[in-house]
Each structure stands twice: as C-alpha cells, then as structure tokens.
Amino acid sequence: MDASPFKQHFEALRAHAARLAGTPIRVLAQTPARATDLALRIGPLYANFARQRYDAAAIDALFALADTAQFPERVRDQFDGKRVNPTEDRAALHTALRSALSDAPIAVAAHEEAQAAITRMRRVVDALQDTPVTDVVSIGIGGSDLGPRLVVDALSPPRPGRFRVHFISNVDGAAAQRVLAGLDPKRTAAIVVSKTFGTQETLLNGGIVREWLGDDSRLLAVTANVARAAEWGIPEARILPMWDWVGGRYSLWSAVGLPIALALGMPAFEALLAGAGEMDAHVLQAAPRENLVYWHALTAIWNRNALGYSTQGVFAYDDRLKLLPAHLQQVVMESLGKSVRLDGSPVAEDTVPVWWGGAGTDVQHSFFQALHQGTDVIPGDFVGTIQADHPNRESHRALFANLLAQTEAFANGQDNDDPHRRYAGNRPSTMVLLDALTPRSLGALIALYEHSVYLQSVAWGINAFDQFGVELGKQVANSLLPAMRGQKAEVADPVTRALLDEILRER
Ligand SMILES: O=P(O)(O)OC[C@H]1O[C@](O)(CO)[C@@H](O)[C@@H]1O
C-alpha cells in the first residue's frame, strides 16, 4: 500500500492554507451568505462552520479528499460490520446498538443481540424498582465509565429517576471511600462494568464495593467476558452482555449504559439511542455537502493538517455538559492517537491533536486568556443549548451573550496601539447548538463526534478502534506491584528504583 495515498490532497490543503494566510476569519466571514451557507441543521442539532479559516476553494479541496478517501463507502463498511478494526480482527458495530441501518447479516445479528440486551436491561431496571434500593454504584473506568457518567450527570436533574447513581473509576482508594461514605449498603446496588473483566482498577474497586455491600445479591456485572465475571463471583443470571464488536469508548449505547437507564429510566435511555440513530441515518444517507459529520471531520483535518494546530478545545456552554470534554477526550484521543497506518507503515500526516476543554463561562476566567493572546492558536468547538431547563432566564441570556461574545472575539480580535491590549483574532471555532438538552439531542451530539472520529481515521489511514498504546503502562504497573507491596523485586530502571526507595522509605 502507498504510504500516503491521499498525499496530493493534503498538499493541496496546505497550498490553500498558504494562499489564505493573509486573509483573516473576520474577512472570510464577510463573504455574502457564508454565515448561513456554512451552517447545517440535523434534527435537534445545528452547527455553524462560518468561523473556520477556509474559503470555498479550500472547502472544495476538503471534499475532494473525502471523495478520494471514499467516505461514503467507508461509513457503509463500518455499518455493515466489516473488519474496520483489522489489528484485532473486529468489526465496530456500535451503530447496531442504536439503529438497524444495515442488511449485512453480521449487523442484523448484532442488532438482534442488542435488542435482547435492552429487554434484559428493562427487566433489571423493573426488578430493582420493587426493592428498597435507592442508590446504585457503577464501577468501571474509561469507556466503561465516561459515557454513562456524562449522560447521567447531564440529564439527571431535572429528571430525577428512581435511583441515584454514583460512579467509581479511579484506582485511588479515596475514590471508592468518597462515594461509599454517604451511602447505606442495605439500600445500594452495584454494577461492575468491564468489557474484559480484567481491568485492575475496576476489579480492585469492585472488590471494595462487594465487601462493603456485604451481600452479593445486589451486585451485577456488564461484560463481554462472562466466564471471568462468573469466576469473580457474579452469577450468570446477573451478568449483562457486551461484545467484542463494541469498543469500550463506543459502548455507552449497550448494557454499559445500565447506569443511565437506572438514573433516568428506560424511556430516556431509548431516546438517547434514538438520537444517536438519527445521526447514524444522517451520516449514511446525507449527500457529502449536506453531511454534518463530513463537515466536522474535514474541519478537524483542515485545522490539524493544513493549519498545523496541535490542540483542539471543546467548550460546553451548558454546565450540565461539563463532562463532555472528558468523554470526547477518550473517544477522540484513544481512537486517533496513532502513528502508524493500517498496514503498519508510518502515518504520513500528523494525527490527533490534544483534545481538552471545559465548561463556559468558568473557562473564560481560567485559561481563555491563553486562547485570546497566547502564541498557539487553539481552535474550539463551542457547544450550547438554546432552551434552558431552569427558570433563571437572565442567567441563560448572560450565558449565551458570553458564548456569542467569545467566538466573535476569537475570530475578529481587536486592534490597539498598546500591544498588551491587542487581540490578534483569527482564532477558529465551530458553533454547535442543541435546541434543548434532552436524551435525544445528547445522543445525536455524541454520535456526531463518534462518526467524525472514524472519518478522520479514514483520511489518515489509521485504525480508530484499537488502543494498544495503553497496554505498556498497565504491564509496567503490574510488574511494579510486588515492589510496592514491599516484596523483594527486581526493578531494572534506575530512576524508578530511586523513586520507589523514596516512596517506601520509613517515615
Ligand atoms: O471495560 P474494560 O475492559 O474494563 O476497559 C476499560 C477501559 O480500558 C481501556 O482499555 C484503556 O485502558 C479502554 O479502552 C477501556 O474502555
């Protein structure tokens, strides 16, 4: 395979970026109708790309890349259950969890299994209703934690469900203690969520919670490794399924979302799936120029490979979405943090930028100074919710005035004779607006990012669905455990040895 089949396209993009170097966003934005032409609405989602640093010719070049990279065919492959994760010889069928948009037998079978799992989830939720349980602790990490945690945090109030749901992820024993401190073991159920059922953090925390509960009957598991969960002590009847065709970071739509169903109710969980399903139908069916996912992915490529930006912010102007950056960080960075192509050859272009973010307006009073005047330009996705769910109208107006002000100031800057008070502007942003924050709109939003990530991986020729990079640290940690326990152990690395000596020194 050619190490860089899309080389001419990336070179063309860089040529466009060079051509546009002297044309700031505030000038580009004056192009008639651009402010509305570079906007799309898909169901409850609206996105506006008018404040990106491209013009019509550069956009044409981006869509030419999408064409050569065969975006529609590659999307179809994923929905049809092709082995889009060749290094693990796996499909990535998270779409089958929320929509039945493929006739391929493997996708149909996956959809049927997913439906059966939903039926089982409903039974679990119903069965718990008739017990004294008031609280549920979800124990998992990474993809087995971040998505459900985000959705529960975003949507719980003002929709208080029957159960309060809490999350424990970090292996730091303090995390478990802090959650359990306020709970009554007799009124608490727990779910151990782990695709592999081999994750150190989850098993340790699961053990702590199991002991604290004192009664195994309120302990459930969600896993693809039923044998291991059963061996750990959870009977099969209380194990809900996962499958190797769902990646952890794409798994909140499966029984991994049980904490969501418990916190918000099954109808809300199903509305979340339906919202994601709408985005699935959109990415599959919309023409390229009408396709929000294509726009989002191509904009990411533009900022990374044509303009060379090495970080990307996501700023939620909705306090309920403050965990969105954390979830997207895993979806984006675990998927796209790769430096070799599918065939193992070095990737020709820079891949994932550092994704990070926070909630506005808080971020304006912490790190936005650097975004306005720092030497690095940091493009941002700004996510807002038009309709508030609370009575504080004036607060909501102020929130939106800030959201609009920041993106305008980033784009336009402001001249001043005093260099300290000058704003260069020309900082790109995409505005993503939800009509209201509902299970449906949140499902669509998360699915937008999932699909965008996949298309970026297609353009770079990398595997978005493996994550071997996380393994080395796990292995080293395991090898250091005996030394941490004070047992005699060979530690070859001199710096690690010195650090261990300091940590284990008698005090
Ligand atoms: O669900 P598991 O198997 O416990 O894995 C948890 C997480 O760990 C990772 O493998 C990364 O360490 C993620 O990809 C995954 O979501």
How would you characterize the overall build of this protein?
With 507 residues, the protein is of the alpha/beta class. The chain folds into three domains: 4-68 and 286-466, 3-Layer(aba) Sandwich (Rossmann fold), CATH 3.40.50; 94-270, 3-Layer(aba) Sandwich (Rossmann fold); 475-506, no CATH class. 46% of the residues lie in helices and 12% in strands. The chain has 19 helices and eleven strands. The protein has helices spanning 7-19, 25-28, 34-37, 56-68, 71-79, 105-129, 146-155, 173-180, 200-213, 226-232, 258-264, 266-285, 292-306, 324-336, 368-373, 393-412, 439-460, 471-484, 494-504; strands at 39-42, 45-48, 135-139, 164-168, 188-193, 219-223, 239-241, 311-317, 354-359, 380-387, 429-436. The strands form two sheets. Strands 1-2-11-10-8-9 form a six-stranded mixed β-sheet, with helices on both faces. It has a five-stranded parallel β-sheet with strand order 4-3-5-6-7, with helices on both faces. Helix 12 packs parallel to helix 17 (439-460) and helix 13 packs across helix 17 (439-460). The termini are far apart. The mean pLDDT is 96. Bound molecules: 6-O-phosphono-beta-D-fructofuranose. 6-O-phosphono-beta-D-fructofuranose is lined by residues 141-144, 194-196, 199, 202, 248-249, 334, 467, 470.
